Protein: Release factor glutamine methyltransferase
Amino acid sequence: MVQGQKVFEALQWASSFLVEHQRDANAGEILLRHYLQMSRSQLFANQQLVLPEQVQKDFYKAVRMHAGGVPIQHIMGYEEFYGREFIVNQDVLIPRPETEELIVEAITRTKRMFPDQKDLKMVDIGTGSGIIAITMKLECPYLFTSAIDISGSALEIAKKNAARYKADISFIQGDLLIPIIKAKEKVDIILSNPPYIPNRDIEVLSDVVKDHEPHQALFGGFDGLDYYRRLMEQIPEVIREKALIGFEIGMGQGEQVAEILRKSFPQSVIEIVNDINGKDRMVFCEI
Ligand code: GLN
Structure:
């Protein structure tokens, strides 16, 4: 490593080093922005800036770690979601941009279906880092929000994220909706991004995902649909007469998940929604 590199030189080194290791070349820019605490435009306005020694050391180390497979979010300790930073570690799924689209759609439907905003209860199942529950609560503060996860260590992260943004959420450790059923509570809105990757797809997953994110948060059984099936056995017990269900799904699972919902709620309006890449990514059910 040559000391006293400029921003553009460090970025050039990072992108070719990362490509050599079959990683995304853009990771270098994100990491350097993190260590310099600069926005994208600041970084580009400072191409000739000589890197402070410590920044250069940290940056080289981080790029090498990512080349070796460590997710950049684990190196930095956070990921951005819906304009906010969320703490992440190996105990939670790293937030994905697709889930931001679930939020957009869920907010639109919540506002349309429940315009008077009164006494509305929402639950996020398998909350992980807490992104869905926390973002919904911050965007729609009138929602009484609960978030469930089976993993105690995931809930610790979710609680930290909620505290950071002062989101008032009731966090519960438990298996899917069982805590709500036991408490005989009723809810209006159910959102979930459950583990939905078919078990056999472990073969084709990148090592960045497979070796660093919790398998419990990734895999959903033989066809990836186990959690949707289990949820559909439980949901009828917890919903009010009028309710909204929103699931994130894996590409190609739309029809099957819609069918699972249709069986339990034949009278409902079910919609498969594509993400910005044109892939089926969400299913909503209005009851
Ligand atoms: N709800 C969290 C998210 O959307 C965690 C999802 C999961 O672990 N499957 O990122």
Remarks:
- The pocket of glutamine is lined by residues 93, 95, 99, 126-129, 131-132, 193-195, 217 (CB under 6 Å).
- The beta strands are 78-81, 84-87, 120-125, 143-149, 169-173, 187-192, 239-248, 269-274, 280-286.
- The two ends are 61 Å apart (CA to CA).
